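Hey, resending since the last one bounced:
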Amino acid sequence: MTPIKPDEEEGPSPEEEITKMLPEIDVLFDRLNMAYNKYFGGAEKKPPILMRDRLDKMMNRVKVLLRQCNSFGISFKVQGVISKNVAMTTMWDKKMMNREKTSGGPKGTSG
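The structure tokens again:
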């Protein structure tokens, strides 16, 4: 067993962690978009809150790691994912507000 030098870090670097997370986030975006489409289409009774929370946590983690990252290429990719996240969440939130206004409540049930 080789001793760990004081300047060596344990675990993956921020770049490695981001590189691993980006494909997972992309798949989660697709799954979440499908889940929201089912909800807005009436096939699901509840919005995909847990999946959305998972995406929000992953995005927050990527943003923290981005501050520690020195790679321009990874930074560029992350900025694209952040832009997609802002666009998608804004769209979903607007649709949720419209649904709540037209249905009289957040669950989409009116009396």
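DSSP finds three helices and no strands in the chain.

Sorry for the duplicate.
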